[in-house]
Amino acid sequence: MWRKRAIGWLVICITGLVLLLVRLMQIQLIETETFSKHNVNLLEESVNQRTQELVIDNGRGNFLDRNGTMLTHKKVSVLVLFPFLKKTDWNIENVSAISGISVNSLKFAVEAAKKPFAFGDPEPIELTSSQMKRINELKIPGVFAIEKKFERSSIPAEQLIGLTGENAKELKKRYPSKELSEKTLLGVSGLEESFDEFLLPEGKSKLVYHVDGGGAPLFGINVKYVDPANPFYPVNIRTTIDKGLQQKAEDLADQYQIKKGGLVLLNIEDNSVLAMVSRPAINKNDPYNGAGITNLMVKQQIMGSVFKTVVAAAAMDHNLDDPNRLFDCSKKINGKPESKYNYGMLNFTNSFARSCNRTFGELAKELQKQDPHLLEDYADKLSLTGSVGWQGEVYHTSDFKQLADEDKGRVFLSDEARKDPNFIAMSGIGQHEVRATPLAVANMMATIARGGKKEMVRAVSKIEYKNGTTMVDFPEESLKGDSISPYTAMKLQKLLREVITNPNGTGRWFKDLPYEVAGKSGTAETGKFKEGKQLHNKWFAGYFPFQSPKYALVAVNLDVIDSEGGVNLLFADMVKALYEKDTEKE
Fold it and tell me: How far is it, in rounded angstroms, from Cα 72 to Cα 58?
C-alpha cells in the first residue's frame, strides 16, 4: 500500500517538475518577447526592472502651427536630478546659487525621489541658456540641465489635432510588419490618427542609469544618454493653424458660452484652416468618453437658411431671379398665414436679405420641376455635399485624407424626397434631409469669395523632417466636379453683402464692423425639444473684407432655444480680432 502511495507521489512530483520546466522554457526561451495574452516583452520588462530613466522626448512626431510654434508640446530647459544624489556628497550649494532654487528645496526633492525627475514637474522651473551652461559645466554626476519635451496642459484645436493612446492589439493590427513596443502611442482621432504612420517614433531620447534591487547604482553613478540619433526623425507636422488666432477663437467661444458648436476660420488665399474650435471640449479626466472627442466642425449638421445660398445660385442661373417678381412673404412655406415673420411682398434680393422661407420654398419647387437633381448639383458646385478636406496621393497611399473623420453633406436621402413637393420646399430652406458640415459651409463662402473657384481645404501644409527639410508637401488642389461661373459668384457676392447692408437684413448687426462682411444667417429647427421649447441650430457664415476677401468664417451654436444668442457676437468679435491683427502687421 505504502509503495503505491510513494509511486503516486513520485509521479505527481515528476509531473510538477516537468510542468515547471516547460513553464520556464516558455518564459525563458519561447515566449520571451510575447508572453501571455497581453504579449508582454519579458526581456524589456527585465531591463526596465534594472534601470531608471527619464524620458526627454518620447520620439513621436510633433505638430506645429503655420509659423513653426509647437502646438501639443513645448520644450522647456529644466534641471534634472537623479535619486542616487541622496547617497553622494554633491555640490548642492553651487547648483542652488546658479538655479536660484534653495538648498533645502533641492535636498527635499532628492530625498523624496525614487526616480530621476525634472525639478518642479509637472510645472518645472525653466532655466535660462546661461544657467544651463553653468550647471552642466559643474559636471556633477546625476545633475543635468537639459531641454525636455512636455505636453501642454491646454492644447489648441484639440479635436482637430486629436488624441493618442496605448493599444497593443490595435498597434499590431495597424502595423503588423513593424517591431514596436506595445507601449507605443497610437493616434486615435483627428490629425493624430490621419498622420499616425508618419508620427511613429524611431525611439525615445532618455537619460538612463542601472540600479540593483535596492535602487542603488549598479555600475557606479554614470548616467547614459540614449538617443535614436536619427537626423530625420521625429518628423514635424506643420499645420495651417495660427496659434494666436486659434487661442482667440477658443476664448471667444467660451466667453459666449458655446456649449455645443464652434467656429471655422479659413484663409481664402490658400484655402487653409487658420482656426477651428469645437465644443464641448475634451474631458481631461476621461478624454475618450463623452461628446468632447468629436470634432463637430467636420460633422454634418442641419443648416437651415444658409442653404438658401445654394437655391439662390441655381435660381439665378435658371432665370428665376427676376427683380420685378414679388413673393408673398406674409405666408408660411405651407401657404398658411405667417404671424411672426410677416414681411409682406418681397422681391428676390429682399427675400434673401430677410431670409423669407416662402420665397425659397417656391423657388426650390420650380427648380425641381426643371430638373430633379438641380439642388444637389448646385450644392456640389458650391462644395457642400462632398468631402472638402485635402486628399490625394502620399507615398504608397493613393487616397490619403488629412481629415479622415470628415462627414459628407447631403440634400436628399431618397428618391421619394427628391420628388415630393413638400419635401422639396422644406429642402429649399435647409430643413428636412439637408445636412452640411460647418467646414463645408466655410468652404462654400470661400468658393464664392474667390469667384467660383472651389478648392480642397488644407489643415496641414507639409511634413518636415527633424532637420527642417520637407518630407511631404500638400499643395493647393482644386476640388473635382463642376463649379459655379464667375458671373454667378459675383451675383452671389452682392446678394450676401445685401444681407448686411439691407436695413432689415438678417446680418445687419455686422454693418459697422471694421471689415465689410458678406454672409448668410441660418436658424434651423432640429426636431428636438427642451422644457417644451424647440431647439435650433444658429448659424452665421460669411467672408471679409468684401472688396478684397481674405477670410471665410462660420460660427454655429447647436441645439439651443431660439432666444439664446452667442453666434452673432462670436462672429463679430472674431472679425474684430482679425482686423486688429492685420492692422498691427501694417
Answer: 13
User: What string of H, E and C letters represents the secondary structure of 495-518?
Assistant: HHHHHHHCCCCCCHHHCCCCCCCE
Cα angle for residues 380, 541, 453 (degrees, 5° grid): 40
Instruction: Give every CB contact of residue 160 below 8 A, 6+ residues apart in sequence.
Output: 190, 191, 241, 273, 276, 278, 295, 297, 459
What local confidence, expressed as pLDDT, does residue 565 receive?
A: 65
Please confirm whether the linkage preceding 234 is cis (ω < 30° from 0): yes
Per-residue pLDDT of 272-312, as tens digits, reads 999 999 999 998 888 888 888 999 999 999 999 999 999 99
Using the predicted structure, report yes or no on whether residue 267 has a pLDDT greater than 80. yes
| DSSP letters spanning 176-206 | TTS---TT-EEE-SHHHHHTHHHH--S--EE
Q: Is 38 exposed, middle or buried (0-12, 13-18, 19+ CB in 10 A)?
A: exposed
Count the residues in the chain.
Answer: 586
Using alpha carbons only, give the angle 129, 66, 163 rounded to the nearest 5 degrees: 90
Mutual angle of helices 357-370 and 308-317, in 10-degree steps: 50
Residue whose cell numbers read 538617443: 227
85-94 residue pLDDT tens:
888 888 999 9
Write down the pLDDT at residue 300: 97
Residues 6+ apart with CB under 8 A from 351: 327, 329, 359, 360
Residue 221: pLDDT band with limits 50, 70, 90: low
pLDDT in tens, 491-500: 999 999 999 9
Residue with cell string 432666444: 563
Give the helix/strand (H/E) hosting 243.
Answer: helix 243-255
Rounded Cα–Cα distance for residues 331 and 333 (Å): 7
How far from 249 is each of 84, 556, 575, 577, CA to CA, in Å? 47, 13, 10, 9
Residue 534 forms beta bridges with which residues?
Answer: 529
State the cell numbers at 531.
422644457
Annotated catalytic residue: which of 99, 194, 205, 305?
A: 305
CA atoms of 388 and 480, how far apart (whole Å): 10
Terminal alpha carbon distance of the chain = 105
The pLDDT, as a whole number, for residue 387 is 94
What confidence tens digit (pLDDT) does each residue in 63-108 have? 999 999 999 999 999 999 988 888 888 899 999 999 999 999 999 9
Three-state secondary structure readout of 93-146: HHHHHHHCCCHHHHHHHHHHCCCCEECCCCCCCCCCHHHHHHHHHCCCCCEEEE
Is the distance from CB of 306 to CB of 554 less than 8 angstroms? no
| Cα(273)–Cα(241) distance, integer angstroms | 6
Q: Is the peptide bond before 545 cis (omega within 30 degrees of 0)?
A: yes
Q: What is the pLDDT of residue 86?
A: 85
181 assigned to active site:
no
Please indicate, yes or no, whether the overall pTM of this predicted structure exceeds 0.90: no
